[in-house]
Design a protein that fits this description.
Number of helices: 10
Helix content: 55-70%
Distance between the termini: 32 Å
Number of strands: 8
Radius of gyration: 37 Å
Shape: elongated
Order of helices and strands: HEHHEEEEHHEHHHEEHH
């Protein structure tokens, strides 16, 4: 029983580590709104609901939009920039002396429009870097969705497994209650000792305690699902599928036939994108050596406040080109390029490590899956045997051929077998979900 409890607690901790969503309102007209009292969900529906309402996923999608905005900002820096100005100038009666002549400086309005466009190699490469950053954000969204849906699948199936465990334990309680009542009747007529009834009573209380503990762990997992799908704490969740609907050990084992494709794995995609981004950063820093060309145009119009003839020396139209050529930076640009190259080499090493680690992880997860499958098959057979043994011992006890101690021992062995069976099922599901996530299936 303790193993099952620890697994349930681990699942809750895992969900808190990878996703702590808050609550959002449903936007899908076919989905049940969050302020409703109940959600009835199949496994696929629970995953879909989480994809629509989980705030962690929403935040990841916002990062994609931010990256897109940054890309357009980089592109817009190479497009024409236009600005307009209106200035008012008043010289406060100042007179300018021109060859002995005093000329009053008139007040005026100055209307100006300027346009410029700058194109440099760094800007072009920067736009490409921004595009790669957006692609990395999109990969991160996929990774986040995978983590959330994997946690939902694990929690959903383990709830069903623990509910099945409760049914088994309650059946044991009912059987032992029947034996306890029979024993108490025998004690009243002097055919049995009180100690025999007390031993059975303690066993019944122990199993009932196990039932209550398992139910509390089920509620922990329900809370995990509530957090993952963004449902309120008082929302009742009804799982519409049974354990046999979502768990087929034979089909789970078929995952062994799937091969690892590195380009399908989100962790590899992120590291590969990070490596390409580092490479592009080297090019970006090299472009600091390339000249930058700026073209500009300006229009200027002065409107004097007096009607007196006034000399205006400002040309109304101005067109120009400016070429900025980097000459000497005292090694600053060289240092930037060198630093970018070293960072690129680091990312290449990380990419190679990622390939090795994923290969090792694949082998380990395949080993875990086949081991979990074999253990589950053994425990499936074992629970059948223990149930038959307990049933047989119950009949023997009724006829007085075995003691109450032997019966309670048999009951304990049955409960342990049931606990081990459920634990093996949870291990099988965990191994399956982990391998499934690695292969991105």
């Amino acid at each position: 029983m303790k193993n099952v409890i620890r697994k349930a607690e681990f699942l809750l901790a895992l969900s808190l580590t990878f996703a702590v969503p808050t609550f959002a309102e449903a936007t899908d007209s076919t989905a049940v709104a969050q302020n409703d009292a109940k959600l009835s969900l199949s496994l696929d529906e629970a995953k879909k609901y989480a994809l629509e309402h989980n705030r962690t996923i929403q935040n990841a999608s916002y990062d994609v939009k931010k990256a897109e905005a940054a890309r357009w900002k980089a592109i817009s820096s190479m497009l024409p920039q236009v600005s307009g100005n209106v200035d008012y100038m008043n010289m406060c009666g100042h007179e300018m002396d021109m060859m002995g002549m005093k000329i009053a400086m008139p007040s005026y309005f100055d209307f100006a429009i300027s346009a410029s466009m700058t194109v440099g190699a760094q800007q072009i490469v920067g736009a490409r870097v921004a595009k790669m950053a957006k692609e990395m954000s999109e990969i991160a969204v996929g990774k986040t969705e995978q983590v959330i849906t994997s946690n939902i699948e694990s929690s959903y199936i383990n709830i069903l497994a623990l509910e099945n465990m409760v049914k088994l334990l309650e059946k044991n309680v009912a059987n032992l209650d029947s034996v306890y009542k029979m024993t108490m009747n025998a004690v009243r007529v002097g055919a049995a000792e009180q100690n025999a009834a007390d031993q059975i009573s303690v066993q019944v209380a122990s199993i009932k305690s196990g039932v209550n503990t398992t139910k509390r762990n089920i509620e922990v997992l329900y809370n995990t699902i509530r957090m993952l799908i963004g449902a309120s704490a008082d929302c009742e969740i009804d799982l519409t599928q049974s354990l046999t609907d979502v768990v087929n050990p034979a089909s789970i084992l078929s995952m062994m036939e799937e091969g690892l494709v590195l380009d399908n794995n989100y962790d590899y995609q992120l590291q590969n994108a990070s490596t390409l981004l580092a490479k592009k950063q080297v090019t970006l820093n090299k472009m600091a050596y390339v000249p930058t060309l700026t073209a500009f145009y300006s229009w200027d119009k002065k409107k004097y406040c007096s009607d007196e003839a006034t000399m205006n020396m400002t040309p109304p139209n101005t067109v120009g080109l400016k070429l900025n050529v980097p000459i000497w930076s005292s090694g600053s640009r060289w240092a930037d390029v060198r630093s970018a190259k070293l960072e690129y080499e680091k990312e290449q090493n990380k990419l190679e490590d990622a390939k090795l680690q994923l290969g090792i992880q694949e082998s380990q997860l395949r080993y875990n899956l086949i081991s979990a499958y074999e253990n589950h098959e053994i425990q499936s057979s074992n629970i059948d045997v223990m149930q038959r043994v307990f049933k047989s011992n119950s009949e023997k006890y009724k006829y007085g051929t075995i003691s109450s101690m032997q019966l309670t021992t048999s009951s304990t062995e049955l409960v342990n077998a049931q606990n081990t069976y459920i634990s093996s099922l949870m291990d099988l599901v965990s191994a399956y979900v982990n391998l499934k996530a690695l292969l991105n299936k």
